[in-house]
Specification:
7-stranded mixed sheet, DUF4192, DUF4192 family protein, about 450 residues, about 10% strand, 2 domains, alpha+beta
Amino acid sequence: MTSRERPAVVPADEQQITLRGPAELADALPYLMGFHPSDSVVMVALHGGRGRFGGRLRLGIPQSPQEWGPVADQLAECLVSGSERRGSRPDAIVLFLCRDPEEGVTGHQAKERLRPFAQLLRTACGTLDVPVLEALCISGGRYWSYCCPDARCCPEEGNPLALPGTTVMAAAAAYAGIHVRGSLRDMEARLAPLDTAGAHSQQQALDSAGVALVSRILDTEGRVEVAGETLELAHALMDRLGRAPSGPPSAADTNDDRLISHDEAAAVILGLQDRETRDKAAEWMEGPEAASALRLWRALARRCVGPYVEHAAAPLTLAGWVSWSTGDEPAARVALGLALRADPDYTFAQLLHQACNEGLAPETLRRCLRGERGAAADRHDHGEVRGGQGARDGRRTGRRPKARTVPSQATRRRRTAPGDSGPGAVVVRRRARESRRQGRRGSRSER
């Protein structure tokens, strides 16, 4: 697609409820997605004579109107072909365009600006012989229909959305245990790079850690040591976060950021760029470890600042995997979508995103990772594990790894000396120059 964001296709679920008319459709949207899809286009497949909900697709609305035509064609093809792969071609589609008005713009004006995009989407679906039964714009707490010309039921000023928790859909969702997590914008903000005064210090820590680690990673034995140190430190941070009290998302995220130093974050972020290290970290996917691991991956994603934004693909993918593994599919899709926005070629995120969208169960991958973990434990029992892996597996045999203290930036500078021209510094500087030329930051091993 021309947009760097990839569409999230949500499989159908088993919940059944009858919706009648545009008002109930508009109210149902956040429950269908698990969040309020701000600044998004959402398409929902309908099946059979009664319009049973099928797959759902969401994509951020392209900023440039020149992109609307190609994106509309691809979205329609993606939803129809995805539904066919799951066994049934849709009989109709309902689409939603969600965008809050900018300052000084009314909801009606926002709706009219998006009318050409709505028409392109309707045409694209019609070309595939799948009609659009309803097209709604949701903006500023009101909704409009692009399909109904009757001003008596669809006035120019729009109709107000129902109050939260007052509709039959809200009651059914509460009974089924379905929770709406707020807006997509809020969910993405929890994973966005820091824009506070600490961002500059974090970038400096990442620069220093790169100088210290690159030369070690290029050496075979050094790479094994770095992997072990990364996993040991990550688990120590998980323990630290797990002991901290939880609270509302914003307060919890702020507290988590305070508990992790810039140097600690830099060491783990750079260590996770190694594919094998990242895959071992993915084993923290269930049980008591999962909640602490998720908090850590979110915190590390926020620390990927400045030219290190692309490095966020690893912690974002791990956050998406843990969310999916623990049953939070909406959060998983958001995290994996952001990982692919940071690095569209990140293979692990691509595979997880596709599997999650196609409704596959995460248990297959969990079994695989459990098997890897069990095999590592067996090797440890026979004294075959070296370095960091043995320290990590010690957790399963009752031997807790000792938390590693990350040297400060000043200590690192003393070790490497000002103006260091060793291989690590040369590689870092060369990669920095290449990243500025190519618009791609950092490097990592196989993904």
